[in-house]
Amino acid sequence: MHDLSGDDQPPPIPRELESEYLDTRFKNCTRCGESLADFPGGFQISKAWKKGECVFEYALCDHCRTALMEEFSKESKERLARFQDENVNLMGGLDRCSVCNREKNALNESDFVLTGVCEGDRLLHGIMVCGKCGERTQELLSKHTKDTWRRFRDENFPGPPGDEVLDPVEPISVLM
Length: 176
Prior knowledge:
Number of helices: 4
Helix content: 25-40%
Order of helices and strands: EEHHEEHH
Distance between the termini: 12 Å
Strand order of the largest sheet: 2-1-3-4
Radius of gyration: 15 Å
Strand content: 15-25%
């Protein structure tokens, strides 16, 4: 985390959080289409890799991220918050799993999700969740929340990725 009140300016958004499909920075919110550049409150980027290939990516303005989280069941939000409090270390950044501390490139780890909280062109917080720990977070979600996530995917992403993709519903529900 960075002290925004002093001279310590957050780092630029790294290449690994840029869009693989557009080969540039995310410019608009995936859900509402608003420009992210000047969005008050920042935005979140999530990218999922399966077998080393980026299979799913999105950027959500703070308003849309909050609205999506509000659609999740109370049970899921409570479980995710408890999981975060008990298991998540925010200090690993984008290189280590925030849950188990496994390095992103260790043991041929090829399934993972990267999530960054950004403002303007700066990364405020970033985390990596490996595939095994991502599966643990999926077990915390109610049917209602899983249905909400599927609806979000269906409304915003035509075609694949399908249910076999590690869903990037981050366990860090309060990063922003």
